[in-house]
Amino acid sequence: MKRTWWKEAVVYQVYWRSFLDTNGDGYGDLEGVRQKLGYIKELGADVVWLNPFYVSPDKDNGYDIADYYRVMDKAGTMEDFERLLKEAHELGLKVILDLVVNHTSDEHPWFREAKASKTSPKREYYIWHDPVDGSAPNNWRSYFAPSCWKYDERIAQYYYHSFAVEQPDLNWENEELRHEIYNMMRFWLDKGIDGFRMDVINLLAKRKDLSDVDNPYDLSYLANNPGIHDYLQEMRDEVLKHYDCMTVGEIPFVAPKEGLLYVDETRGELDTLFHFQIADEMPTWDMLRFKQIQRDWYEGLNGRGWNSQFLNNHDHTRQVTRYGNDGEHRVASAKLLATLTHTLPGMPYIYQGEEIGMTGVKFDSIDDYQDIAMKNRYAEEVGKGRDPKDVLASLQLLSRDNSRTPMQWNAQKHGGFTDGKPWMPVNPNYERLNVETDLSREDSVFHYYQQLIRLRKNNPALIYGEFTDLLPEDESLHAYERKLGQVRFVIVLNHSHETRTLPFSIDAQSLVLQNVENGTDGLLPYEARIYMTPTAR
Ligand code: ISL
Ligand code: CA
Question: How far apart are CA 94 and CA 92, in angstroms?
Answer without folding.
Answer: 7
